[in-house]
Amino acid sequence: MKYIDVFLCELNKTIPLEYIGKVKYIGETFGVDGLTNNGEYNIVRDKDGNIKVVDDSEEDYIYSLINPSPLDGTSVGGTFYIVDDPNDELKRIGLKNMKYSDDEEMSYPIDCPVCGNIVDFFGICRVCGYQNSGDKEKIGDPIGPNKVTLKEAIENYKKLGVSDPNDDYCKILLKERNNYD
After folding, report:
1. In whole angstroms, what is the distance from residue 8 CA to residue 27 CA?
2. Same domain, residue pair 173 and 136
3. Per-residue b/e over 169-180, b at no fewer than 16 CB within 10 Å?
4. Quick check: 5 and 54 in contact, CB under 8 A?
5. pLDDT tens per residue across span 79-125
6. Same domain assignment for residues 7 and 93
7. Where are the beta strands (DSSP E) in the chain?
8. pTM, 2 dp
9. How far apart are CA 141 and CA 149, in angstroms?
10. Residue 69, Cβ neighbours under 10 Å: how many?
């Protein structure tokens, strides 16, 4: 059994808690010290057998592992994906593994950097037609798989509803919306 040290503010000290695994949170960021989109979090078991998440506060709290969100309803929350699950306990609870494509790149849902729709890590957005280059893509990044920059794609989306009006898939999207002849 592996243990990790977790700070408990009520005791003002760290204590060893059983390590269950590690997850990646994909969803709406919430709370000052809650969960952050794309953040990785340790999952632990306390002395009473409760499974808890070590969140941004670096303390352990009980979150729903299936639909993590704040109890007060101020956020829709998101989803945990398994990063490490040495005893398959998180899998038995119902969490899903991170997926890998043929080229071994990670694939999981992220917000499209152009329109905000949920799309796979390197997927093509079904709303704006932009092919995502991962969750670290920045506005000034090179073009990557697209024929336009991210900045151009955002401008095109605001004006036309698609990331690149010259792209074949985007033309199909426009035609489906009756905006293109």
Report:
1. 26
2. yes
3. bbeebbeeeeee
4. no
5. 898 999 999 999 998 888 865 544 444 556 777 888 888 777 778 88
6. yes
7. 3-8, 13-27, 40-45, 51-54, 60-61, 78-84, 96-97, 99-100, 106-107, 109-111, 118-120
8. 0.59
9. 7
10. 18
